[in-house]
Amino acid sequence: MPTIQVNDLKKTFKVYKRGQGVLEALKSLFSRKYELKDALAGVSLSINEGEIVGLIGPNGAGKSTLIKILSGLLWPDSGEATILGITPWKNRIKYVANIGVVFGQKSQMTWDLPPIDSFYIDKDLHNIPEDEFNRRLNYMVDMLAVEDVMKSPVRELSLGERMRCEIINALLHNPKLVFLDEPSIGLDVIAKDKLRDFILKVNKENKTTFIVTTHDMQDIEKLCKRVIIINYGKIVYDGQLEDIKKKYFTDKHIEVKLSDKVKSFKFKGCVVLEKQDYQLKLELDTKKTPIQDLIGYLLKHYDVADITVTDPPIEEIIKKIYGE
Amino acid sequence: MNFRNDWAVAKMGIKVWSAYRFESIVMLLTVPITLIMYFFLWKSIYSYTGSDVIRGFTFQQMISYYVLSMIVGFFTWSEVDRWIEQDLIHGHMIGAMLKPISFVSFYRSFEIGVNLMNIIWQMIPVFVLGFLFFGLSIASLFNFSAFILSIVFAFFIYFGLTFLLGLSAFWLKRITGLRRVRRVAFGFLGGSLIPLNLFPVWAQSILHYLPFEHTRFVPITIYLGTLSKESVIKALCLQFGWVIIIYLVISFVWSRAYRHYSSVGM
Amino acid sequence: MKYLKLLWRCVKIWILKDFAYKGDFFIKVFSVAFTDLIMPLMTFFIYSLTRGIPGWSLEELLLFQGTLILVLGLARVFSYHFSWWTLDAINWGNFDQYLLKPYSTLLYLLALTVDHYGLAEVATGVVFIIYSSIKLGISFFSFNALMYVLFILAGFMVILASQIIIASMGFIAVKTEALMQLHNKLTDLARYPLNIYGFGIKFFLIFLFPMAVSSFVPAEVLLRGFAPKMLLYLIPVAIYFSLSLWLWSSAMKKYSSAGG
Fold first, then answer.
1. Which of B101, B108, C72, C205 reaches 20 to 30 Å from C124, CA-CA?
2. How close B157 gets to chain C, by Cα (Å)?
3. Looking at the complex, does the CB of residue B131 fall below 8 Å from at least one CB of chain A?
4. Distance CA A73, CA A75 (A)
5. Burial, C228: exposed, middle or buried (Cβ in 10 Å; 0-12, 13-18, 19+)?
6. Using the beta-carbon criterion (under 8 Å), do C27 and B181 form an inter-chain contact?
7. B266 vs A247, more confident
């Protein structure tokens, strides 16, 4: 029985329009125009216990809407979902006790109180036994280094500090399923690493299922074996990350630094991305020409000072897929 | 009803109150100023008019009325309309929705927590102030106990009405103006600024059909002992009736509000 | 001149911003007027049941209260929002931007925080003033009326000074919202004529917190006529206002020297 089973979810929003300037503002006093916006156009998926799934897509693709519906905050117009045996929006109070959600920009902790107070409130609300609570709390506080931070009021924390506390807040009651919406935003490199290790550890030890929405490709690389790409309210790819890489990683980027000025460059299967007096950036389709041929050609015909070969950034790959 | 959950949220209310306790205490310190103003005002009115009783109130009762108005005001106060408006604007509503407790219970329990502190830090001090300086006294044990029950009902009525106003934020988004009107109207029409029996008779008959008098005027007059025992019982029953009505309206409006929230996707 | 331009710009921005929430805009306007109507309404009730306050007929008291409402309205337009805004800026740590503008910080902030809702309050006050002066047969083409306006402006200065003091305290102390509460309650005392109060409060309202010039003195001038010794009432106002400016400049000095 999959943890998450979703069938053909559809959701359309009414978006109210407002014009510019004083005249439009005055007009809006008397009539309200709205547009219909399709957020989800039939989304189906199935996720098993213990998976860490990355949900990616351009802004406005429907990611947040999907997450909100799956966490029980919104009702879909049509379609079904059974998560942990419950339909989220039909049985919110019961459902919510078993999930954890972290929304990047929106805090769930009480603004005026220190996070530690919000942690204790959750302890009471979810009836967590004292020793288990202390154990989990100390463990997480240690891993995410928030010992001091959690004693200042939430409104005084930086985004990064707050995010770390929000994650603890979401995991204290040991939920089976956790939604993370842009969790590494605002974190420095070291904190991001710690966070990812933390998620992996929790997933390994408790078989917690994670769904991670992110624009940070490093998150995807490090955390998710499986990736779901959503665009225009529909799923355009649902599969292993490895497969994407294999299928789309046929291009290579080559950066060449030369000792002589270069006028123009042409080579089979090669696209010039950037050309400066002493530098070339090239993109090679390795299906057309193997990389050794290009490098051989460069070394033979040019005075090469340096060559660097890299994979194209994963964003480019994703962009290609979005575009399909 | 899950009381353990309610109590957890009430504790949250207590903690947030503590973060703002300074403001609450200062509110308390301004009470004597207002009471002194009304003291002098009515003193000159009573002596100028030359009668001991105005619409059934002696001067002492009038002063006691204002003291009690402060006391009842502190006990029944609610800011839940502002919380809902703010939570919606800043996206904190999600926090409320993700807690395993019903939306109404969440806000109500929070308010109860806040008010528990208000009882200790505002209501009781004003009682003491009233007894010591403004001639407040207890009419009878019956009246005092009925008063306690009455202000509990008043609390739920006031909270309920304010909560309903807060729910309008789901449609209107900004309700700052409405809230200001609420603060003044609920109080004034409830008799917190001037006793309701000083209103023109036609106005009083209209007000009898509205819930406002039950949030201030009714508990105060129960305390003062100006009503017969039967009237007191009748008043308490009416208050209870209003509590039921308001909560029925709340369940209805809340489900519509949630549906709207969901369709617009805030 | 540049301050007037600044003022106009700020007013335009405020109005545009508020129209975005149309219903709320109208209701806010209504709520301001409504809140102030309670005061005269109570007066109506009192006068229909009793002889009222010694020395003041119903219309005279309405003129008195209308004057107060007018003064409060003017103060709301130009200074009410100012203290909140300044305190918020200090709390959130973005006050420095105001020191970087090519304007006097105080005047800049006052222009920035002009609150057009106050006009509703001003209008309410004017309505009651006109109503009662018609009933009392008072003409505004008189020297008394001129002095009346002078004292109204003095009353406005008192409240403005209070807001400046409160804002200044924000740099020195932390919990200044409490001062605001206190100030609001104290201004309530000006709702009724001085003759109802004992000596202590009279002294307070004339010399220490000269709110008497916002309602009592102008009403007296219009109703019983002007006497030159009434100008003495302006002295505490001048002192109070100078105090507020001094506090503000001390606060500014402290703030800039401490590095914010």
1. C205
2. 22
3. no
4. 7
5. exposed
6. yes
7. A247
- The pLDDT of residue B263 is 67
Q: Is there a contact between B172 and C50 if contact means CB atoms under 8 Å apart?
A: no
Tell me how close the Cα of B180 comes to any Cα of chain C, in angstroms: 6
Residue B19 has its nearest CB partner, among A65, A75, A113, at A113
Interface of C with A (CB under 8 A): 15-16, 19-20, 22
Amino acid letter, residue A85? G
pLDDT exceeds cutoff 90 at B68: yes
**CB < 8 Å to B102, chain A:** 93
In the prediction, which pLDDT does C260 show? Answer: 46
Instruction: Find chains touching chain B: ≥3 CB pairs under 8 Å.
Output: A, C
Of A39, A73, A124, the CB nearest to B11: A124
| B157: containing domain | 3-259
Count of domains in chain C? 1
Q: Which residues of C touch A21 (CB under 8 A)?
A: 16
Domain span at residue C224 reads 2-254
Whether the predicted pLDDT of A305 surpasses 90: no
Q: Which helix (H) or strand (E) holds B76?
A: helix B59-76
Q: Pick B99's closest partner by Cβ from A74, A125, A153.
A: A125
Extract the tokens encoding A66: 């999907």
- Mean per-residue pLDDT of chain A: 83
Q: For the complex shown, is ipTM > 0.90?
A: no
Domain count, chain B: 1
Distances, alpha carbon B32 to alpha carbons B22, B187, C38, in Å:
17, 19, 21
User: How close C97 gets to chain A, by Cα (Å)?
Assistant: 20
* B chain contacts of residue C32, beta-carbon cutoff 8 Å: 180
What's the pLDDT at A278?
84
Contact at CB, C181 and B181, closer than 8 angstroms:
no
Q: Is C259 a domain residue?
A: no
User: Phi and psi for C186 in degrees, rounded to 5?
Assistant: -70, -35
CB C12, CB C116: distance < 8 Å: no
The neighbouring-strand residues paired with C138 are none
A217-226, A264-273, B143-152, C5-14 — which one is most confidently predicted on average?
B143-152
Nearest-CA distance B36 → chain C (Å): 9
Residue B235 lies in a domain: yes
User: Pseudo-torsion of CA A164, A169, A172, A174, nearest 10°?
Assistant: -90
Please give the pLDDT value at position C186: 92
The closest of A270, A268, A267, A254 to A304, measured between CA atoms, is: A254
B-C interface: how many C-beta pairs under 8 angstroms?
106
Q: Is B266 within a domain?
A: no
Q: What is the pTM of this model?
A: 0.81
Residue B264: inside a domain, yes or no? no
> What does the pLDDT look like over A126-140, one tens digit per residue?
888 999 999 999 999
Q: How confident is the model at residue B189 (pLDDT cuts 50, 70, 90)?
A: very high
Lowest mean pLDDT among B50-54, B125-129, C98-102: C98-102
DSSP element (H, E) containing A161:
helix A159-171
Residue B264 pLDDT greater than 80, yes or no: no
pLDDT digit string (tens) for B139-182?
788 889 999 999 999 999 999 999 999 999 888 878 888 888 89
Per residue in B199-230, pLDDT tens? Answer: 999 999 999 999 999 999 999 999 998 888 89
**Cα–Cα distance for residue pair B252/B230, rounded to 1 Å:** 34
Residue with tokens 């400066």: A276
Interface mutation target, options B24, B31, B40, chain C, most CBs of C under 10 Å: B40
Low-confidence ranges of chain C (pLDDT < 50): 260
CA distance B69 to C158: 30
B99 domain-assigned: yes
- Residue B43, judged by CB atoms within 10 A of its CB (0-12, 13-18, 19+), counts as middle
